[in-house]
Amino acid sequence: VTADTGALVSDPQSWPLVHVVGAALFRDHPQHGLQLFVARRSPGRRHGGCWEIPGGQVEDGEDEPTALVREIREELDVEIRLHHRLGEATVPAGGVRVRMAAWVGHIVHGEPTLVDHDDARWVRPVDFDHLHWGPADVPLLSALAAVWESPPQV
């Protein structure tokens, strides 16, 4: 029970689990070095205004790589190549538990076209603190920053 409203608060461990995947898409820029693609969720959507590595929900019967390739094609209209699974985190968010798995990859064809986002940037770890991240991405920021210590071949 909360002190301010007296409302009953359920245990987040009992909330439904939603399995999502995010693509940590990297490029090697000739002047700026290794950069990560991030996008800001459009206003009016869940977590609108928050920055994230793009991705989406894993559908029944899909494995994570298949879901991620599909989601990135739908959200950004690009083709990607995945390198390896970076890690995962589970966070409570809006009455559900979100289990997000992040995969490292790069764009192999196309330029990102924003569908579910209103802005996008290529960033480095020094930029992370200047962005308002979505709740599922926050626990993965240190793992994302560590990619610069052992960068993928992009």
Can you walk through the features of this model?
Helix content is 12%, strand content 41%. It is mainly β and 154 residues long. β5 and β6 form a beta hairpin. The longest helix is centred in the middle third of the chain and has 13 residues, at 64-76.
The succession of helices and strands, N to C, reads EEEEHEEEH
Strand content: 35-45%
Number of helices: 2
- Any low-confidence stretches, pLDDT <50, length ≥5? 1-8
Shape: globular
User: How many strand units?
Assistant: 7
Give the biggest beta sheet: 7 strands, mixed
> How would you classify the helix and strand content by structural class?
mainly beta
Record keyword descriptors for this entry.
154 residues, mainly beta, seven-stranded mixed sheet, 7 strands
Please outline the helices and strands.
Blueprint: E1 17-29, E2 33-41, E3 51-52, E4 55-57, H1 64-76, E5 79-93, E6 96-109, E7 117-123, H2 141-146
Parallel strand pairs: 1-6
Antiparallel strand pairs: 1-2, 1-4, 2-3, 2-7, 5-6
Compact description:
The chain has two helices and seven strands. The protein has 154 residues and is mainly β.
